C-alpha cells in the first residue's frame, strides 16, 4: 500500500515495496548482480492477470539472457539473478517490468525505478549528491477508494488526470540558490510531455538516454516521450528567496489532457547556505564528453534499413512492417526484422504511418545517433546518444548505430506500453549465422530458479 493521495491508500506493485523502486547507483566498470525475487501474488489483485515478471535494465548493453526479454518470464515464487556489466559511459538508466502482454499494467502499478551509472568524467562536470536529483514522471487515474484505474481507450493509450513525480502528485521541492541537475525519466505508460519552466528561463541539456552530450544545449522546452531520459541543469541562483519556479507541461498531439496535466511540480527557492568550494554550484558547462556513437559517420554504414510503424484496423494490433510479436512467437522466436553482423554500423530509418499516433521507439542493446528528423536536423535536445526515438504523427527518423558488443537476439518495440502489449514488438539478431547455436538464448540460457526466500 502506498500513500499517494491525501487520506487514501493505493495498492501498488513495488520493487522492495516502493514506487518508484529504489534508485541504484553504481560506478562504471563494476559488474553487478541484481537478484529479482517474484514475491507478488499469483494474479494481479484488480486486473486479474498472472503476475509473471521479466526485468529489463533499459539502457544497458546486457547479454540477451539478462536483458528482460518479454517471454523470459519469472513466475511468482521464482527468482532470477540478472548480471549487468556496467561498462558503458555514465548515464541514467531505469529498470522496469517487461512481461509479455502485461508490461503496461505492471509498470503502471509501480514496477519501475532509476539506475545511475557514474564515472569520474561525469562526476567532475556535473552536480552530485543532494544536487543530483532523479525525477520519475508518470501519470495515473484513481478510483474514489484510491485504487489505480486502468483504461487503455481501445488499446490506444492510458492517460491519467494526475501527474506524479517520484510517486507523488504535483510535489514541491525546496531548492538552494545554485545549479541543480535533474535526471528526468518519463515513466508514463502512454503520455508524452513538453516540459518548460514557468519563468520562461531556458534549461541546459547535458545528457540524453545514453549519457553525456558532446556539447550542452540550451532549450526553452523539450518534447519528452515514454522511456526517454534527459538530464537538465537549472540555475536557481537568479531567483529570489521565496520565489516559486514551476516545471510545466505544454503537451503534444495525441495526448488526452485534463485540467491539471499542464502542471508537473514546483521548486521553492530558499536562502540556505551554499558550499561555493563545490565548482558545480554555478557551472553550466558547454563542452562535455564525446562518445563512440556520437562520432559515428553515416558514410561508415554498410547497410540502410527502412521500417514502417502501422496500425491494423481489422485486428486492432500495432505493427512494425506489418508484423507483430505473435508472429515472432509463432516462429518459435526465430523471426527477425534485421540481422546485422557483430560490430557492423548501419542506418535504420523508421516511418510512422500509423494514422495519427506517436510512438517512442526503443532499440535494445545499443545507443544510436539521430541523423535526421523528416529530412531535417534533429532537435537540439536530441544531439546526444539515444536509445529511444520519438516518432510523432507522420514523422520519419533516421539514425546511425553500431551493433555490439554481444551476439544474440534483442527487442525493438514501442514504449507506449499499451502499443507494446498489443503487439508492437519485433526482434533483431546480432552476429548469428542461420544455423549457428545461440549460446545466449534470451529465454533458455539463464532460467529463473525457485525462490528459497533466503537473504
Keywords:
single chain; about 450 residues; 4 helices
Walk me through this protein's architecture.
The protein is mainly β and 455 residues long. The protein is built from four helices and 29 strands. The protein starts with 23 loop residues before the first strand and ends in a 5-residue tail after the last strand.
At a glance:
This protein is mainly beta. It is 5% helix and 37% strand. The chain has 4 helices and 29 strands.
Which stretches of 5+ consecutive residues score pLDDT under 50?
none
Indicate the overall shape.
Answer: globular
Q: Write down the overall mean pLDDT.
A: 97
Strand content: 35-45%
Instruction: Output the structural class.
Output: mainly beta
User: How many E strands?
Assistant: 29
Number of helices: 4
Could you outline the blueprint of secondary structure elements for this entry?
Elements: E1 24-27, E2 32-37, E3 55-58, E4 78-84, E5 91-97, H1 103-108, E6 112-118, H2 120-125, E7 132-142, E8 148-149, E9 162-165, E10 168-169, E11 172-175, E12 179-186, E13 193-197, E14 203-208, E15 211-219, E16 221-224, E17 229-235, E18 244-249, E19 263-269, E20 303-312, E21 317-320, H3 325-330, E22 345-352, E23 359-363, E24 368-373, E25 388-391, E26 396-402, E27 408-414, H4 417-421, E28 425-430, E29 449-450
Parallel strand pairs: 1-6, 7-12, 11-19, 20-22
Antiparallel strand pairs: 2-4, 3-5, 4-29, 5-6, 7-8, 7-9, 9-10, 12-17, 13-16, 13-18, 14-15, 14-17, 18-19, 20-21, 22-26, 23-25, 23-27, 24-26, 27-28
Amino acid at each position: 500500500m502506498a500513500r499517494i493521495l491525501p487520506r487514501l491508500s493505493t495498492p501498488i506493485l513495488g520493487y522492495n515495496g516502493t514506487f518508484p523502486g529504489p534508485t541504484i547507483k553504481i560506478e562504471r566498470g563494476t559488474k553487478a548482480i541484481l537478484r529479482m525475487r517474484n514475491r507478488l501474488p499469483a494474479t494481479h489483485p484488480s486486473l486479474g492477470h498472472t503476475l509473471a515478471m521479466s526485468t529489463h535494465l533499459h539502457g544497458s548493453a546486457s547479454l540477451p539472457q539478462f536483458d528482460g526479454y518479454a517471454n523470459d518470464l519469472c513466475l511468482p515464487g521464482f527468482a532470477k539473478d540478472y548480471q549487468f556489466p556496467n561498462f558503458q559511459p555514465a548515464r541514467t538508466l531505469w529498470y522496469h517490468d517487461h512481461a509479455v502482454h502485461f508490461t503496461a499494467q505492471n509498470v503502471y502499478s509501480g514496477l519501475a525505478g532509476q539506475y545511475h551509472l557514474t564515472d569520474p568524467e561525469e562526476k567532475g562536470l556535473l552536480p552530485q549528491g543532494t544536487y543530483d536529483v532523479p525525477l520519475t514522471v508518470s501519470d495515473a487515474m484513481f478510483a474514489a477508494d484510491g485504487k489505480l484505474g486502468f483504461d487503455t481507450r481501445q488499446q490506444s493509450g492510458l492517460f491519467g488526470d494526475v501527474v506524479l513525480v517520484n510517486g507523488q502528485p504535483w510535489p514541491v521541492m525546496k531548492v538552494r540558490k545554485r545549479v541543480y541537475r535533474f535526471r528526468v525519466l518519463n515513466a508514463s505508460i502512454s503520455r508524452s510531455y513538453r516540459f518548460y519552466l514557468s519563468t520562461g528561463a531556458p534549461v541546459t541539456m547535458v545528457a540524453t538516454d545514453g549519457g553525456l552530450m558532446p556539447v550542452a544545449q540550451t532549450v526553452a522546452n523539450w518534447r519528452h516521450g515514454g522511456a526517454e531520459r534527459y538530464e537538465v541543469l537549472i540555475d536557481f541562483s537568479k531567483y529570489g528567496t521565496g520565489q516559486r519556479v514551476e516545471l510545466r507541461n505544454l503537451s503534444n498531439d495525441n495526448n488526452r489532457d485534463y485540467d491539471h496535466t499542464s502542471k508537473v511540480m514546483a521548486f521553492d527557492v530558499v536562502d540556505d547556505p551554499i558550499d561555493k568550494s563545490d565548482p558545480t554550484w554555478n557551472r553550466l558547462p558547454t563542452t562535455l564528453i564525446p562518445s563512440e556513437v556520437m562520432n559515428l559517420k553515416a558514410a561508415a554504414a554498410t547497410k540502410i534499413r527502412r521500417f514502417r510503424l502501422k496500425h491494423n484496423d481489422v485486428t486492432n494490433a500495432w505493427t512494425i512492417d506489418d508484423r507483430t510479436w505473435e508472429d515472432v512467437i509463432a516462429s518459435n522466436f526465430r523471426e527477425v526484422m534485421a540481422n546485422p553482423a557483430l560490430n557492423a554500423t548501419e542506418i535504420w530509418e523508421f516511418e510512422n504511418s500509423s494514422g495519427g499516433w506517436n510512438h517512442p521507439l526503443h532499440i535494445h542493446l545499443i545507443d544510436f545517433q539521430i541523423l535526421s528528423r523528416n529530412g531535417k536536423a534533429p532537435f537540439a535536445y536530441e544531439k546526444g546518444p539515444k536509445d529511444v526515438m520519438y516518432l510523432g504523427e507522420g514523422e520519419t527518423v533516421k539514425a546511425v548505430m553500431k551493433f555490439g558488443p554481444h551476439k544474440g537476439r534483442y527487442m525493438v518495440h514501442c514504449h507506449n506500453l499499451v502499443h507494446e502489449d498489443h503487439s508492437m514488438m519485433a526482434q533483431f539478431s546480432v552476429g548469428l549465422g542461420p544455423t549457428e547455436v545461440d549460446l545466449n538464448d534470451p529465454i533458455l540460457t539463464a532460467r529463473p530458479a525457485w525462490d528459497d526466500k533466503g537473504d
